[in-house]
Amino acid sequence: MTALANPFRPAGSDRIDPVLVALWLVLIVVAALWIAPFLFIIFTSLKTNSTVMGASAFAPPTNPDWTNYAAAWTRGKFSTTVFNSAVITVVKVPLGLAISAMAAYVLSRIEFRGARAIFLLIVFGTMIPFQVLLAPLFTLVNGFGLINTKLGVILPYLAFGIPYQVFVLHGFFKELPRELSEAALIDGASHFSIFWRIFLPLSLPPLAALLILDFVATWNEFAMALVILQDNSTWTLPLGLMSFQSQFSRDYGQLNAAIVMTVLPATIVYMIFQRYFVSGLTAGAVKE
Known about the structure:
This protein has about 290 residues and is mostly helical. It has 2 domains: about 20-65, no CATH class; about 70-285, MetI-like (MetI-like fold, Orthogonal Bundle). It has helices spanning about 20-45, 50-55, 65-75, 80-110, 115-125, 135-145, 150-175, 180-185, 190-200, 205-220, 225-230, 235-245, 250-285.
């Protein structure tokens, strides 16, 4: 049975490195600072108001009150907001990745006049903060009669999400050997077949990383949804959480239970695809 490596010793050395010890201590402190708020939220979500006010905030609940979750779900009408967020996210994220992957393949592998200019124009979209465009965006969406509709937020989400995804996937496709596509073209394969059968399977790591980022961004997006979705029957989960907080801000247990339910789907998606996350972003971060 192989012994575990000592994290405080460099590979092949028997001496403890003080620099590694210091780095581990810093990482432990930073991790504790990040984890502490989440523990506070989870512990508070399982306490009654009297327990929250009378006990230490970070003390684990002795008698967990699971009814906070059911009460928050009912009082906050989260069944509606979760459904709206799920529909928008399930439609937007795969569609955005599909469009971005095809666009990145065309711009990186098919030579035609203006390809470079089109790519630069798309990348320019990543430099524009959407907050400065909320007013004209509302006017545009309203002009199409899409206010208070799911399509009214899906289309802007696609417009602001695709440029970054094209940028990452374009760099990844550029680094793949040209012989892969050239050999397939000689054998008579179409560009769509090459993209579907060769490039798409090879791009699973960056696609998984982008899926995580896009899912979290879409699931938690607030400002654009607040402007476009004005009827509470069309609200997404962040808007429902805002409303719940304004009405029941003193029901600490239920409020924190609502927060836990809000972040849980994004956490689950990350846990499923996290093994691709670092390798995927590294694969896309290349220099032409």
